[in-house]
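My main concern about presentation is that the manuscript never shows what a single data entry looks like. In essence, backbone conformation is discretised, so a fold becomes a row of integers matching the chain in length. An entry of this sort, consisting of the sequence and the corresponding backbone structure tokens, reads as follows:
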Amino acid sequence: MEEYPPLASLSLTHVHYNPADRFSYLCAWLALVPQGLCVVYATLIWSNREIEILLMFAGQTACEAVNWCLKRYIKEERPREMHGKGYGMPSSHAQFVTFFSLTLTFFLLFRHVPHPTETHTPFTFFQRLILSILALVSAAAVASSRIYLNYHTPKQVLVGCAAGAIFAVVWFAFTTFLRRAGWVEWALDTYLARLFRVRDLVIQEDLVDSGWARWEERRLRRRRSEGKKSR
């Protein structure tokens, strides 16, 4: 009888949890948040072509690379109750969501200055503050779920949060420098950026409102034109 080599498991979305524990089940879903955020990144980049989202995704990717290096440098094992593989220090989930939530907070509070239009009133600073707090609380929930599911020790999660926070501050300072030094404007004038229609509107416009006022104006103009023809 022919023997086959043992099969491996693609553990990207494979989560162990206690089926008798509803909170454990919820934590299993929270463990999928980073994968969901990657889908959000890809969708927004493809549909909006915003340079700010591209920069944030580049920072998120670099943050993951730092986590990969740290794990292989520290080489600390996961909790004994964990049946998975790989090193646990620092927690990649905690580092991922901390970077995301803090970078989003920095953007909403310090870089995003939306202007009102005839058809839309943007979020106030207080509303953006509430949204930032919700993002940070959600990140804390994801990070805590890693401890509850025994994927990481509290220390591994705290170090992951610290690494994500430090990298978020460094990356925001770096992108601020790129903007002030004119490098972002230079990149937007390159052949590839213009080929893929990369733009920089979300700084002064809400993402959902980008282009809406221009579309409304065009639609009203078309209706007036059709009204004149029907007379």
User: Anything to note?
Assistant: The CA atoms of residues 129 and 135 lie 10 Å apart.
